[in-house]
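sry for the spam today, last one i promise. struct tokens for design, 229 residues
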């Protein structure tokens, strides 16, 4: 069933937070733990969903901005290191994988697609979560937010993953949940699919994406449509 899509797009690149996993509860737990250590009140779940998407450093900065004085100049590296330490102690909820994700990735991989991840989540946390979810074996190239000097919306992480997977951008599709994924894909000259259930932080109609899917298991059909267009 995926044969046209497979010939046209042998490489598939995915975003992580908000696309494959609903990580807002764990990210929120980590950020609120950090804020509490600084005497700050917690931020709400809906605030967290607006903070996710630009990497851990921006997340932490936004947490401080939303609860009082912004971080003092020069304080970020230490506070960020502490956030990573806290997050590393939070066990991954096995139910954080969105419905249909594991089955669909397995199906696409079995069909012959090569799968990779380009996330703004720090690399060490990405590998920890993938490992705890037993998903590491599905993704043959993983680029975290700090793997390269640039993160999304730069196209570099996507191009790096495509190259690691032995592909070319014109034979690859990006799938993500926010504007950074769309901008990175556009700059890499890759088609882009957006999921409607993540943390878009703006109306879906403003993402400027090629196809919006409501559920992850709609991806194989979306790829067929892109391949036919
Ligand atoms: O951690 C973030 O800020 C976002 O991560 P993502 O790129 O996987 O959505
Ligand atoms: Mg995301």
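last one done:
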């Amino acid at each position: 069933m995926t044969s046209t899509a497979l010939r046209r797009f042998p490489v598939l690149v995915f975003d992580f937070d908000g696309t494959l996993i609903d990580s807002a509860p764990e990210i929120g737990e980590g950020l609120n733990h950090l804020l509490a250590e600084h005497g700050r009140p917690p931020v709400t779940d809906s605030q967290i969903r607006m903070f996710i998407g630009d990497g851990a450093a921006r997340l932490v900065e936004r947490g401080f901005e939303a609860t009082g004085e912004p971080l003092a100049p020069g304080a970020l590296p230490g506070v960020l290191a502490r956030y990573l330490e806290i997050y590393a102690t939070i066990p991954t909820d096995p139910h954080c994988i969105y419905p249909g994700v594991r089955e669909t990735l397995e199906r696409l991989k079995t069909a012959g697609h090569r799968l990779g991840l380009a996330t703004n989540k720090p690399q060490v946390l990405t590998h920890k979560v993938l490992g705890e979810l037993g998903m590491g074996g599905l993704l043959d190239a993983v680029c975290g937010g700090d793997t390269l000097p640039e993160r999304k919306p730069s196209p570099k992480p996507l191009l790096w993953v495509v190259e690691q997977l032995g592909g070319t951008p014109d034979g690859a599709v990006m799938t993500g949940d926010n504007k950074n994924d769309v901008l990175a894909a556009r700059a890499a000259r890759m088609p882009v699919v957006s999921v409607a259930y993540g943390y878009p932080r703006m109306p879906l109609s403003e993402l400027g994406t090629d196809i919006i899917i409501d559920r992850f298991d709609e991806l194989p059909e979306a790829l067929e449509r892109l391949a036919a267009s």
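The chain has a mean pLDDT of 97. ok im logging off now
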